[in-house]
Amino acid sequence: MDIISKQDAKNKGIKKYFTGDPCNYGHISERYVSGQCVECVVLRSIKRRTEKPEQVKAAIDNWNKKNAERVKETSRAYTEKHKEERNKTSKAWRESNPERNRYLTRKARGLPDPEYPTPDSKICERCNKLESKMVNGEPQALSLDHDHTTNKFRGWICDNCNTGMGKLGDTSKDCFEAACYILDSEPDIQACY
Q1: Contact, 142 vs 122, CB < 8 A?
Q2: Is residue 154 part of a domain?
């Protein structure tokens, strides 16, 4: 570390300086131009966070609320600067925490909690076929099916069934009318109406 006096640091607009002399507690560390030893400040902060975590959390939350725009901008800038690293970290977390990731994704999309976990078999509960959509050579996870009006969980279905029902309007009436349309064109089956 380069030796620089407090006054030189102030003149140059630098927030810290270093004299090489120990502080009152024996730390040979940089000091803020306010005179505080950087290491002492760090140690006090750690002690405070350990002894009064609720008080520290409340103070941080309060500061974040008062400075919401600044926090957003800082977060945006950090994310942009570290985009590649953050993407790798996020991908690694998602791969090592698949159930938690699915839960958070469902929560963010406003989907209901399933009544039971995703089946490992990847067999659709509607058509009883293996999921045909592949991801990295493996069938993808089944889709959580739910009633879009009541948001009630209905079951785990394959991508084809999920997409098909979605395109038909995702209601029993629309799906029934589509089935009747097909049945009407088959001569040996009586019409629905």
Answers
A1: yes
A2: yes
Answer for the pair 31, 17: CB distance below 8 angstroms, yes or no: yes
Q: Six-digit token pair at 175?
A: 């799906």
Asked if the structure places residue 87 within a domain, the reply is: no
The residue to which tokens 């349309």 are assigned: 181
CATH number for the domain harbouring residue 165: 3.40.1800.10
Number of domains present in the structure of the chain: 2
Q: The pTM is what? A: 0.48
Judge if 56 and 127 occupy the same domain: no
3-state SS assignment for residue 192: coil
Place of tokens 């995702």: 170
Report, as an integer, the average pLDDT of 127-147. Answer: 87
Question: For the residues of 118-138, what is the DSSP string, one character each?
Answer: PPTT-B-TTT--B---EETTE
Average per-residue pLDDT in the chain?
Answer: 89
Please write the tens of the pLDDT for every residue from 19-37: 999 999 999 999 999 989 9
Angle between helices 53-66 and 68-81 in degrees, nearest 10: 90
Q: Write out the residue range of the structural domain in which residue 53 sits.
A: 6-67
Domain end position, chosen among 49, 67, 85: 67
For residues 50-84, one letter each, b for 16 or more C-beta atoms within 10 angstroms of the residue's C-beta and e for the rest, the string is: eeeeeeeeeeeeeeeeeeeeeeeeeeeeeeeeeee
